Amino acid sequence: MNREIVSTPHAPGAIGPYSQAVAAEGKILFISGQIPLTPAGELISGDIAAQTKQCMENLNAVLTSQGLTFGNVVKTTIFLSSMSHFAAVNEVYGSYLTAEPPARATVAVAGLPRGVDVEIEAIAVY
Fold it and tell me: Which domains can be identified in the chain, with CATH numbers?
């Protein structure tokens, strides 16, 4: 299987031993979980809507680097610090994925990197 490591300066760099994304066989793009960290390394905290928007902008930057859009996304997973954030996250998320949204799972977890409230990963097809 051919795989290509994907990296763009328009999304935050990896903060651990992982890649922003990996393209498999030039057909599927696996995008690592994006937290509300700007490309410059600034952590967006507080308002869950602002955190979610930054996560979506980071996903968009990785997609764009590969000539893709949210229309290419087939599956996402949203990790929340609390299900109490579900409605607000859903509103922001839905503004990016308006037509034929992808399959999705949303789960509450005990903790997320850097103490954020949301992390979103995606799988897209070319």
Answer: 3-125 (3.30.1330.40)
**Contact indicator for 13, 20 with CB cutoff of 8 Å:** yes
One pLDDT digit (tens) per residue for the chain, 126 residues: 899 999 999 999 988 899 999 999 989 999 999 999 999 999 998 899 999 999 999 999 999 999 999 999 999 999 999 999 999 999 999 999 988 999 999 999 999 999 999 999 999 999
3-class DSSP state of 23: strand
Query: Which among 43, 65, 9 has a CA at the least distance from the CA of 119?
Result: 43
Give the Cα separation of 68 and 41 in Å (integer). Answer: 24
Tally of residues, the chain: 126
Residue 102 buriedness (CB in 10 A; 0-12 / 13-18 / 19+): middle
**d(Cα 24, Cα 12) in Å, to the nearest integer?**
21
